Amino acid sequence: MKFTHELQKAADTLVKEIMGAKPGESVVITCDTGSDMDVIDATARAAYSCGAKPVIIQTTMTKGNGKAADEELPLEPLIGALSAADIWIEMNTSWLFYSTAYEKSTLANKNMRYINLVETPADAMIRMVGGFDVQKLTPFMKEIAHLTNSGKEVRITTPNGTNVSFNIEPRHLMCCDSGDATVPGIHMMPGQINFVPNWETINGTITFDGTLTPPLGALEAPIHLTVEKGVIKQVTGTSKQASEFRDWLGSFDDPNMFRMAHVCYGLNPGAKLCGNIVEDERVWGCTEWGIGYVHPLDAPPHGIDAKSHCDGICLNSSVWVDGVQVLDTGKVVHPKLKEMLN
């Protein structure tokens, strides 16, 4: 086993601090044949050591994710186990997230705490779960979320060309995955604040210079989007990837695939750009933009009914909320927030 002590510390942080597992609670850990079993075993040990009751469910790795994997999954046993769990930690490589098992169990079990840690090998677990002080990161991120959601206008720039502004929409989702998953609901890997702006107000240039998934992954050169009222009007760049991305958007024959969906702040101290979008969108000081589909619950009443969705990373972001600067090329400059990190 690699990183034995460091990995166990990260697993203990996950189960005891982030999930808040209590004696007697059931902790279901789902995984598949592509998962890092060292991570799974360390997480089960952490649950057992705090008096909880760990259950490991391993399935075969499916060809697709979400509902695309339904035919390959033992749905009824999964739904039965998850519908009775106090905590569900998903560590699958082929995602159960958005599958029928996920959908039915989360609807049936309103008291469950779910966290999405898909595609998380030991080194990422150590960096992204055990590599920071949860007690410090949680209030810091909640303060940024509050500051943003209390504002009206946000402006974002990057050294490679992003210069975009938009208005906050209070009726839309503001989700702060700060490392506090102790209350029932859906939680994601710590280190991201996700919100859905007022789409009509998104105007300017958005430059992806990290990764763009799907369809490209790591970028050879920046790709620039010209956006007017939340709609992509032009895709440019010096590499062939720019035209590949433009063609990919057009291949759906769906105008909603040219709509900006959501924006995120990346704030996980241990994340690094690696080609895995779950980690990439949490790189400290980046912003991430989603394009295409948005769930109606995230942006009531209708969301965006697009045929697919993709996410792109803008590194070293500078952010202003109502003219007050929060980040400067990825570094925290807001006085109150800086003090919280010291």
From TrEMBL:
Domain of life: Bacteria
MF (Gene Ontology): metal ion binding; metallopeptidase activity
GO biological process: proteolysis
SUPFAM superfamilies linked to this entry: Thermophilic metalloprotease-like (SSF144052)
InterPro entries the UniProt entry points to: M29_Exopeptidase, M29_N-terminal, NicX
Signal peptide: none
UniProt keyword list: Hydrolase, Metal-binding, Metalloprotease, Protease
Pfam family, one: NicX
Name of the molecule in the record: Thermophilic metalloprotease (M29)
Source organism: Parendozoicomonas haliclonae
